[in-house]
Amino acid sequence: MSLDLNSALDTLTPNVNSKSGPGCGIQRILDQLPPETATKLLAKIDDPSIQASAIAALLRDSGYHAHDTSLRRHRRRSSNSGCTCPR
Asked: What is the pLDDT of residue 12?
């Protein structure tokens, strides 16, 4: 039996949902915020001189469920050990 490899390759599609789990909690928070606030928060998250624990505490005090480990992982997005959110 001969397989037409060229045609068979056309049937392969990317796995869009390759990660299991609820997704990024930080991105969910960013999605809930007004654009100006989300941009400001993302700039603070991306600033390594600001402690993730301070950002998480501020978010919790504002009524959001956030943990410093989630923030540190989100900072490492696009790396092998980081968040799956695009940079």
From this structure: 80
